[in-house]
Every structure is written in C-alpha cells, then in structure tokens.
Description:
Glutaredoxin; alpha/beta
Amino acid sequence: MNHWTISIKVISLLILVVLSSLITLSQKSLASNLPSDLLNAPIDLIDGTQVSLKDFQGKAPVYLKFWATWCQPCRKEMPHFEQVQQEMGDKLKIIAINLGVNDGIEAITKTQQEFKLTMPLAIDSSGDLAQKFRLLGTPYHLLFDRKMNLVHVGNVADDQLNNKIELITNNNTIDLLKAATLNEDSKDIQIPFNKGKKHILYFTATWCDWYLKDSRPSVSRNCIESQNHLNEFHQAHPNIEVHGIASRLWTGEKDLQEYKKKFAVKHSFSVDYTNRLFHQYKVKNMATFVLVQNNQVLARADKLSAIEEITDRL
C-alpha cells in the first residue's frame, strides 16, 4: 500500500467524521422537547389530508387552536384568529381544531363561512388530540417554535399570545415550556365493575343544561330530561349500578356539587378529570348512556329509554 493510498483513506475517514458530526449537530439543532407521540400525532384536516407537528419541524412554527362552534369565547376570538392567519400565515402554520363534541361538519362549515376563516381546519373526531394535548377548556391555544418546542399554552387570545407569536415568527429567543406541562397529573375515576353486575355510565357536562340552552337547545333539553329520567331509573332499579360522569371541560368540584344539588342527584357522580373514560368510551356527545357488564359494552344511546329496553330484555 503506497503513501497516496493511505492519505486518501485518511482523508475519506476524516470527511466521514466531519459529515457525521454535522448531521448530529443538525439533528440536535432541530430537537424538540415534545415526546414522539405528540410530535407525530396525526391531525386529520377536513380537506382529507393528514399532517403532524413533525411535518413542520425545522420549517415553520405552529399555532394550534382547539374550538367549538357553540363555544361563545371561541366565536368572539374568531376575528383575531383570522387576523393572525392573514398577517402571519406565510411564516406561521396555523390549524383550527374543532373538538367534535356536539358538533358536525355542517355547523363547522357554517362557522368557517361566517367568519371567513382561511386557515386549515381539522375535527378531533376520535378525541385523541384533546387527550394528548390535555385540553381542559376551549378556546385552547398552543404555540410551538420552529423546532417544535412548546412555548405557550392558554385559553385566551391576549397580549401574551400575540407577543409570543411575534417572537417565534421572527426566530427570536423565547422561553420554552416543559413538555410535562401537557402531562396528566390527575387521578382516574375508579369504578368497581362488579362481576356480573350491570352498570350504566351517564356522560354529560355540568353546564350542558344552561350553557347550550341557546346554541344547542335540543342538546340542552336532552341533558335535562336525561338526568331527571336517570334519577327515576336509579330509584326503580337498585340492582343496576348508576354512575354519572361529568366532562372535565370548565368543571371543578364546586360545579359538580351545584349540579347535583340542582338535579337532586342521589347516584354516584364524578368529574372525569383525566378524560380517560370519555376517551375510552369514545363519547363525543352530551348526554350519552353506556351500558356495561363485565367490562363489555352492551349498548350505548343518547336516550335512557333505549338502554331501559335492553336491560329489561337482559
């Protein structure tokens, strides 16, 4: 082996080392503080395409906003939301994510047209996104810098949100939030599914009767009638376990106690602070009844009468 051959091999090896170092540095410079399940969580847009935060990493910062057509603060913020799209849409990826709770494509499209929204729209039909990003109420604003680090979580379109949008779109230094901000730290509801015994799970919201009275009157009426009917059912069927499960959206223990007093609730009732049961049973409408036995779902309906017919047959 001559001197030139050795030199070429050494130079080649050095080039490989340098390239490897550059790739490693590049990967580190794009590193996100988000866990992979959030970074790669699929977001299904209503135009049929699917995206994730990973798609925009290293390309553009991202602004996710969760909303509902019946959410009054959401509606009030829509002009601001579209203004951000018009002014920053060329350097900020904005996605409007509808909760998919008591909402449908017709209502969503109507709201889109009403406020002339031009940013991409998605519907969280499975509830996976709300669960992963720990949604506790709408509107829900999430900002991620170009590296997909979490930099903002909030429920109001205020100066703090606007200032952070300005910073991330101009690649300025900004304080990062810990990804653990989105971790669940509440305890799950523990329901003792006794072997062989039937359980009725009633999913609702403590605000369903009054907050949806004008925007979703039929839903509001159904929530009222369902709770009253369930009270009667509970007294007449002591052999069937009844569990009320309230959505965690805008809800605390005080709200639950006021609700129980208003409707004279005697059966067990808890707030699903982790949203695990709502997500597990794929509940997307208030009110929903689920009949369970031996951890198996026997039936689900939005009227207790349908469940009663099944329990009578069983």
